[in-house]
Amino acid sequence: MQLVRAGTLTAKENESLARETATFQRDPDVKKANYLGNGRYELVLESKRKKGEALNVLGVLKVGTGKDGIITIASGELDKNGKKQLSEMGIKLDGTLEVTLPKNAEVLSHNATSTPSFFGLFGSYSWKIGNIDQRPLMKIRLKT
Fold first, then answer.
1. Residue 128 CB coordination number (10 Å)
2. Other Cβ atoms closer than 10 A to 43
3. Of 23, 133, 136, 143, which sees the most CB atoms within 10 A?
């Protein structure tokens, strides 16, 4: 526990976490899973769903469509107990979430820290996440 609190993992802990990439890769929506070390992963996800079909990626990212056709992309939400457990374990969130949308997507709202450049034609929406209370959220509508 002290090693985690200090931000350092043992070689054995890192090896165990690296083996988790095989678990991630069994998910059909995970196109790429790399362990970066020190409890960090790089995941590339790609998913195609039928209209109205929800997506829950590893309990971390949720995508759902409302009855009005608006698609909500949001991170999973932790309750107070979950946040407390992460804090007690010394686990901190620090990373980037990037979302690339199809050309026919109309963004209705978002709280991204950066957006595509050149009138939205190049790049992706991204969120720099530095603590547990940051919750990426985006609402879009697909144009027909």
1. 13
2. 20
3. 136
Determine contact, residues 75/136, Cβ cutoff 8 Å: yes
Beta bridge partners of 43: 33
Could you tell me the two tokens for 56?
Answer: 């829950």
What predicted TM-score, i.e. pTM, was given to this entire model? 0.74
- Quote the tokens at residue 7: 């931000």
Please name the residues in contact with 24: beta carbons below 8 A apart, sequence gap of 6 or more: 30, 33, 41, 43, 58
C-alpha separations of 53 from 20, 39, 40, 104, 132 in Å: 27, 31, 29, 18, 27
Interatomic CA distance for residues 122 and 115, integer angstroms: 9
Rounded CA gap, 68 and 49, in Å? 17
pLDDT digit string (tens) for 45-68?
888 777 778 888 777 788 899 889
